[in-house]
Write the structure tokens for this entry.
Amino acid sequence: MRKTVPALLWLLGMQAAFGATANPGTPNLGKPAGPADMRRWDIDIGRDGRWLPPGEGTAAQGAPIFAGKCAACHGDGGRGTDLSRKGLPAPPVLVSDMKRKGIDGSTTTIANFWPYAPPLFGYIRAAMPWNEPRSLTDHEVYALTAFILAENKLIDAKQVMNAQTLAKVMMPNRNGFLVRFPEITPR
Ligand code: HEC
């Protein structure tokens, strides 16, 4: 106890000394975030392809990456696992050969539910693989995006996906959504 009190006083003294000089009114932790720090986190992608990074990939390049890093959870070629086939809780099925007209809440897949293609890139880059997000290069993400789109027959299997081509992919259900607040929703 006798030793603790002087140590505490010393700490308070140091805090007062630094606090007075560096950032008054703050606990003086961390450092101010600069533009370079922000860039690492500012990774969203516009639905029209805005902010897509440089890079490119094809379905053929994406297939082996998918087999190695994604199929364990999403099944071979993204077609689901035994769990999803039994209707049990499971990672979503990414590729489906079912009809793509209208929306049935029980059977939403990328092909019938995602109105724009660029956010697919954004989602994979930010969140997948689930157990290791942010571990893929932009080239790998373009290749995986191409693979999923090609498996869903939304693009030609040979098409190269990059910032320009991905923005041009027309998703089948783009105009199938009812806009709840049209006056504040850009079309
Ligand atoms: C450890 C299991 C796991 C792995 C590995 C994994 N995913 Fe996922 N993935 C999930 C889960 C769980 C979800 C649903 C997450 C949610 O809804 O919050 C998901 C969702 C997705 C979605 C959104 C699907 C939709 O219809 O909304 C995409 C696209 C996707 N994953 C792609 C990939 C790709 C590409 C890879 C490989 C790089 C990958 N995933 C690896 C578990 C996994």
